[in-house]
Amino acid sequence: MAAKSSISDIDAQIEKLRERRRTLIVKSAERFARAATRSGLAEMEIADEELDTIFEEIAARFRKEEKKGWLTQLLRRVDQQLAQVERRRRFLMTADRKKDARKKFLLGGLVVKAGLSKADRAFLLGGLIELASVAPGTAEHRRLRDIGEEAFKAPALDGGSPHIAETAEWH
């Protein structure tokens, strides 16, 4: 089973594939220039309109020949790999967004479970910041954890907190 790639790994793969594609296109242009030089078009004195016509004819012939060529096959393969990696990146980004949304949903459920769904958000944030200062493993941390475990066993509080505002509006 392949290792799970991070989005930054996939971004690096995409950049490598795009660079490889650019290199292949440059090689194709160089090959075309060599063909034009061999045919003598590079040294001829030709008017711009004629040159455009000749260029289109040669380019059409070159494209027709190149459809069967190795360079076109390589470009097609690189494009397919690029599309596959970009699809993988979109999938991972969607999965990350879903995971983040679920985490936020669960945190919101904790606020409801505590009976603070109508509390002022500044009060909630202040309380959470204060809780963040309690070191794990301390007596205070264990005491608060015990309270929380008991609350998970009990039904949701229905507004018994004195810090609940009358409106559900977020300020």
Set out the fold topology:
Layout: H1 7-38, H2 48-67, H3 70-113, H4 121-132, H5 139-153
Characteristic terms for this protein:
171 residues; mainly alpha; 5 helices; rod-shaped
In short:
The protein is mostly helical. It contains five helices and no strands. The C terminus is likely disordered.
Structural description of this entry:
The chain has 171 residues and is mainly alpha-helical. It has 5 helices and no strands. The chain is rod-shaped and about 90 Å long. The model is unreliable at 162-171 (pLDDT under 50).
Give the SSE order as H and E letters.
HHHHH
Stretches with pLDDT under 50, minimum 5 residues: 162-171
Kindly estimate the percentage of residues that lie in beta strands according to DSSP. under 5%
Structural class: mainly alpha
Q: What is the count of helical runs? A: 5
Give the terminus-to-terminus CA distance. Answer: 49 Å
The major β-sheet equals:
none
Instruction: State the total count of DSSP E strands.
Output: 0
What percent of the residues sit in helical stretches (DSSP H or I)?
over 70%
Rg (CA only): 32 Å
Could you tell me the mean pLDDT? 78
User: What global shape is seen?
Assistant: rod-shaped
